[in-house]
Amino acid sequence: MPVSVRLRTLAALALLPAAVLAQTSRTRPVTDAEVARITRDAILIDTHNDIPSHTIEGYDISKPMVAQTDLKTMRGNLGGIFLSVFVDRTYVQGNHSANRTLQMIDTSMTDIVNKYPNDFIFATTADDIVRAHKQHKIAGLMGIEGGHAIEDSLRLLRDYYALGVRYMTLTHFNTNNWADAQGDENTPNVQHHNGLTPFGKDVVREMNRLGMMVDISRTADKTFYDALETSTAPIIASHSSCRAISNHTRNMTDEMIKALAAKGGVININFECEYLSQRYYDLMRPMLARIRPQMAEARRIADPVARQAAIDKVENEGYGSIPPPTLEEVVAQIDHAVKIGGIDHVGIGTDFDGSNCVPAVLSDYTKFPILTKALLEKGYSADDIKKIYGGNMLRVMRAVEQRAKELKNTPPIETTIEQADGKKPAAN
Ligand SMILES: [Zn+2]
User: Fold this and answer.
1) What pTM did the predictor assign?
2) How far apart are CA 76 and CA 392, in angstroms?
């Protein structure tokens, strides 16, 4: 998790020439009143926000932002938020993933949703989100990031559903015992599975039965295709962008976007700079190589506070040296996803507070009117924008809920990973 993202955003903002803020091709004049009305009426659902990784460390969202999200910038600007129950791969060693998952669920509820009842309503369904929006409150939802959270147990998956979790990203950076990740595809000592194992397919089926959305952001491409084929409900990418624009394996190919859309799913565009922009991605790699010696030096500092401060300083200067993606580059990602997948299959998953860099022009929830204006100018209608901001996700949620209703009389899947895969998982 990045520690001082705000500094990076501010540093990057200083580099941004004023002209790039108004770069979109104007097809028609748009009034501020129109922009305000459309943004207000749309139910903006952010399908991926990592602020719980900060609240678990003691950050209070009522204090001015340390990163990209605080109460003030959310209030009045956000319809629903999927708080990311992120479980780092380091918890796999020694089987601490479930412990961390439960603590992340607790911080999402105790330090965010329940702590600020005037601002949040706990939500688990599409109807809950619509109801919260009518009451001018933010629907607080949860999604698990990293399938290792279930420690290879469908019982734990059911526990997480019971606690309110409504999506699970099948993998994080790391391949787990039943699904290949994109992050370690080329790491030779990792035991890969060629997508999902039979147990991995049972995980998807049990998610369908429960009514938990299957999220394929961060999975290997083959895992995506296996999940899509196995799932009997639409699936989502909670925070992924288009590989045709930024050639990062973390993003989706046009073929994947088409396949996802054909089964009713939604790709939620990620605002992380390197996923948005090829230009940024190309500049980032040499920058990281350049700061490597300073990083190594910073990591050698004995005092933990001084060490972290030194690491932050080096990272801030490094990331701050690259101009972040422009508004036009964000719109290009959304526009490409719409052209490939269709207007009913694109959403927003900012990855705020899980990113090293987001565009300065769209660095928090107060900035969305800027995106609304740019999309209107590009020729998108108010209805189109409502779909992208949240309407499409409401449809997917309803479809997933409906599928669970149909499967209500199907018994829980009881197989263990050993039974399904015919062997004990190798320790990764
Ligand atoms: Zn995340």
Assistant:
1) 0.91
2) 21
